[in-house]
Design brief:
Keywords: FAD, Flavoprotein, Oxidoreductase. By secondary structure, the protein is of the alpha/beta class. It has twelve helices and nine strands. The chain has a single domain, classed as TIM Barrel (Alpha-Beta Barrel), CATH 3.20.20. Strand 1, helix 2 and strand 2 form a beta-alpha-beta unit. It is globular, with a radius of gyration of 19 Å. Bound molecules: 1,4-dihydronicotinamide adenine dinucleotide (NAI) and 5,10-methenyl-6,7,8-trihydrofolic acid (MHF). 5,10-methenyl-6,7,8-trihydrofolic acid (MHF) binds next to helix 9.
């Protein structure tokens, strides 16, 4: 008979997880309602005492102002440091320097430096690309101000890279340019993160490689995104979510169970921290933070910035 572990895993994770930093990624909301709800989300998530919030940008750089506005709001709401996702795409070198000055003046100290993606008609539309790859952007930001710079890493290889080893060498170039840590593309199989960490170490990378955990609030949507982003989707996840679309509560509890298992396995594979792609929700990422020994519960009695 196949046996499940008899270990009290939750108790152990509550103890070991408490030593690891967590961070939460959000995207700029598309409506006023979504904006108010993000303020509430951030106030709740701040309860887990995250190292930072990060605010995404569109791959072509066109959401820069919205990203910055959201970052300012979250910083004002929560007193948690905010990390800006910033792309080389959509900017000239002069614009990058000027924008770096502005971020620095605004008190932003954390940047995720990305190449971004050029739209197919970028040349025709005259969309600039300050640096061909993210390493150039890292060097430019570091030369301008003493930012804490993160970069993206791909445990299952970036879709454009010829091989995983070539991709890891490109990651190394980003560290050589001054990056402080990498935040990994989400994976659904923690083992691929573990293997990636070992392989990166063999390439001489000694900086933190923080795994990303995506909250599958809407499995079909997340699945579509994963396929596009080059993350493999195990059959067992399709099986777990099969048929729960019409059962929202069961879908959420199932999502929680998958996140919980993923966090536990990533910690077992040596994760130095956990970065949650929250999809602008708070229940599952906050519960996951709680299960990492965060003793969440300070929210009651707190005013949130949207509740003026
Ligand atoms: N918005 C977000 O939160 C996130 C977005 N992304 C997206 O992923 C895309 C890629 O961005 P990055 O990973 O920053 O790009 P990158 O420049 O680090 O890598 C992109 C591709 O170019 C290759 N490459 C990198 N440096 C190279 C070099 N010096 N010489 C030759 N080849 C090199 C890599 O192997 C990879 O295939 C962007 O579209 C970004 O928007 C990825 C993670 C998070
Ligand atoms: N290549 C890549 N680009 C990214 O922007 C990105 C990553 N990877 N990895 C980590 C996070 C995860 N991000 C995500 C994840 C899912 C959706 C998503 O569900 N998109 C929907 C549309 C959402 C909407 O516009 O409301 C989709 O169907 O693609 C978006 C950004 C942003 N980040």
């Amino acid at each position: 008979m196949a046996a499940l572990t008899t270990e009290p895993v939750l108790a152990e994770m509550f103890r070991t997880g408490a030593k690891l930093p967590v961070s939460f990624e959000v995207f700029p909301p598309k409506s006023e309602n979504a904006r108010a709800s993000l303020h509430y989300t951030a106030t709740r998530l701040a309860d887990a005492d995250p190292g930072f919030f990060s605010v995404t940008s569109s791959p072509d750089g066109s959401s820069r102002e919205r990203t910055l506005a959201v970052a300012r709001e979250l910083a004002a709401c929560t007193e948690t440091p905010v990390k800006i996702h910033f792309t080389a795409s959509g900017h000239t070198r002069e614009q990058i320097d000027a924008h770096a000055d502005r971020m620095w003046a605004d008190g932003i100290r954390h940047v995720l430096a990305l190449r971004g993606d050029r739209p197919a008609d970028a040349d025709r539309r005259g969309i600039p690309q300050a640096y061909e790859h993210a390493d150039g952007l890292v060097a430019a930001l570091k030369a301008r101000h003493d930012f804490d710079v993160s970069v993206a890493a791909y445990p299952e290889k970036h879709p454009e890279a010829p091989s995983l080893d070539a991709d890891i060498e490109h990651l190394k170039a980003k560290f050589d340019a001054g990056a402080d840590r990498a935040i990994c593309q989400f994976v659904f199989d923690a083992e691929s993160y573990g293997r990636f960490r070992e392989r990166a170490e063999r390439h001489g990378i000694d900086k933190p490689l923080v795994p990303g955990v995506i909250v599958p609030t809407n499995w079909r949507r997340i699945r579509r995104f994963a396929v596009k982003a080059g993350a493999s989707v195990p059959d067992w996840l399709d099986e777990l979510f099969d048929g729960v679309e019409d059962e929202p509560e069961i879908a959420q509890l199932t999502a929680m169970a998958t996140v919980q298992q993923q966090v536990r396995r990533l910690i077992a594979y040596g994760a130095p921290a956990i970065h949650f792609y929250t999809m602008n929700t708070w229940q599952i990422p906050l519960a996951a933070g709680h299960l990492m020994g965060r003793h969440v519960g300070d929210f009651l009695g707190k005013t949130w910035c949207g509740a003026a």
